[in-house]
Specification:
Elements lengths: L2 H11 L7 H10 L5 H21 L5 H14 L2 H11 L11 H15 L10 H15 L1
Length: 140
């Protein structure tokens, strides 16, 4: 399923995350950066439709949510950093203290972006900095 199809699925099935969460992780991993508008629409659909349902379900989808954050950070793209930041803002979604290995991988992934000597056209320094701030707040 491509990210455009997933966007439509999230908008129609937003209140039932089990229907699309696995597809979200695959779509993020497979996203080829071909259409920025589609990506922005996906991030908006996820934050507007999926995130409220995930928040209401407390930690029922904790593993999926943590994996989505990690996948977003690996993509090193402003829009994905924003999506991860929105998840980090929801303190009742993931118990990060019970995931030290995953937290370590995410910190490493973000530190590589922050420590780069050259600016990437795919990542704004502001989005990386904001994501780091939200991530650190979530981890403490």
């Amino acid at each position: 399923m491509d990210i455009q199809q997933l966007n439509e699925k999230i908008q129609s099935e937003g209140s039932n995350p089990i229907v699309y969460l696995d597809d979200v992780i695959h779509a993020i991993h497979n996203y080829d950066f071909s259409d920025e508008t589609v990506l922005n629409n996906f991030v908006r659909a996820f934050t507007d439709h999926a995130l409220p349902s995930l928040t209401k379900s407390k930690r029922k989808f904790e593993d999926f949510t943590a994996d989505i954050c990690e996948a977003c950070l690996k993509k090193r793209r402003t829009e994905f950093f924003q999506l991860a930041g929105e998840i980090f803002d929801q303190s009742n979604l993931v118990r990060w203290q019970k995931r030290p290995e995953q937290v370590s991988r995410m910190v490493r992934s973000l530190s590589e972006v922050v420590l780069q000597d050259t600016e990437s056209p795919r990542v704004s320094p502001e989005s990386a900095s904001e994501c780091v701030t939200k991530m650190m707040k979530a981890f403490t």
